[in-house]
Design a protein that fits this description.
The protein is built from eleven helices and no strands. The protein is mainly α and 295 residues long. The chain has a single domain, classed as Four Helix Bundle (Hemerythrin (Met), subunit A), CATH 1.20.120. Helix 1 packs antiparallel against helix 2 and helix 4 packs antiparallel against helix 8. It is globular. It starts with a helix and ends with a helix.
Length: 295
């Protein structure tokens, strides 16, 4: 049995323990917290703490990475069962959309992950920059903050399931956005993989395919997925309220944290990246600047 297989089995065991801990938490807090929304939040927090603990045990913060994509469809499915929601066309489209996104993202993580010797370079950078507060930055920054941000996106989903509205234009539009955005992520991932396999020179920049029109088409797809979820769960259920702030916060997370961190690394390691940055849109796909100037 390879080291990767052993690591995957160990990771699977960790997640089963985390899900069991979350399930027991959901049951135990029922006398105190009545709403399934906040009971699920408690379960989600406990599950995150368990994964964080296992990450400390194996000395690898990337133990958390699949949590981002694995948990949301499980939470939505659990709410459907708990609330005894009829699987109408609108509910089915929401569940299919989120599941489609989750499968794509989990698959992408799976083919890129090797074993517990592999840790996301961003986590290593955070640890090396401030080793004295690594315990806290690991817990709050790498584990708990993403859990809270993703759960915030699902608050509108919960209210949508309570109302279970009939199929309408917003639900259809949101579903199409999710499927389109997830497909865009998949295509950009395949293009990046082909580029890496074809170019052993790690100093080159990808500048074709979707990457010709956006420096981060995969991030654009991720942000768009959550706007699609909001379209279904918010306007799709007749809600035009403060919940729009949550996909906006997701967008800001990528604009001001994920992208700057990634581009700082790219500029330091790839000499051509500064020119690429000047020519290509940061997030939303658009024609390269040099082509616009000559048109």
């Amino acid at each position: 049995m390879s080291n990767r297989t052993k690591s995957l089995l160990a990771l699977l065991g960790m997640y089963l323990v985390a899900f069991l801990a979350g399930f027991l938490t959901y049951l135990l807090v029922s006398p105190v917290i009545v709403s399934p929304l906040w009971r699920m939040l408690a379960a989600d927090v406990v599950g995150t703490i368990v994964i964080w603990g296992f990450g400390l045990l194996v000395k690898n913060a990337s133990t958390y990475d699949p949590y981002w994509s694995v948990v949301p469809p499980l939470i939505v499915t659990a709410w459907i069962l708990i609330l005894n929601v009829e699987l109408s066309f609108s509910v089915a489209l929401l569940l299919i959309g989120i599941s489609f996104w989750a499968i794509r993202l989990t698959y992408n993580w799976l083919i890129n992950w090797t074993d517990f010797n592999h840790q996301d370079w961003r986590y290593t950078m955070i640890r090396n920059t401030k080793p004295e507060i690594w315990f806290l930055s690991n817990f709050f920054g790498i584990n708990m903050m993403p859990t809270m941000i993703v759960f915030a996106q699902l608050i509108a989903v919960y209210h949508f399931l309570v109302l279970a509205p009939a199929l309408n234009g917003f639900v259809i539009l949101g579903f199409m956005v999710i499927i389109g955005a997830t497909s865009l992520q998949f295509i950009s991932d395949r293009q990046m993989l082909r580029f890496r396999l074809a170019n052993t020179d790690r100093k080159k920049c990808i500048s074709d395919g979707l990457w010709k029109y956006s420096r981060h088409p995969n991030y654009f797809g991720e942000v768009s997925v959550w706007w699609g979820v909001w379209l279904i769960a918010g306007p799709g259920s007749g809600r035009f309220d403060f919940l729009v702030v949550f996909p906006a916060l997701m967008t800001l997370l990528f604009l001001f944290i994920s992208i700057p961190m990634m581009e700082k690394k790219m500029i330091a390691s790839r000499p051509d990246y500064l020119l690429y940055k000047k020519q290509v849109s940061m997030l939303v796909p658009f024609f390269p600047r040099k082509e616009r100037e000559h048109s």
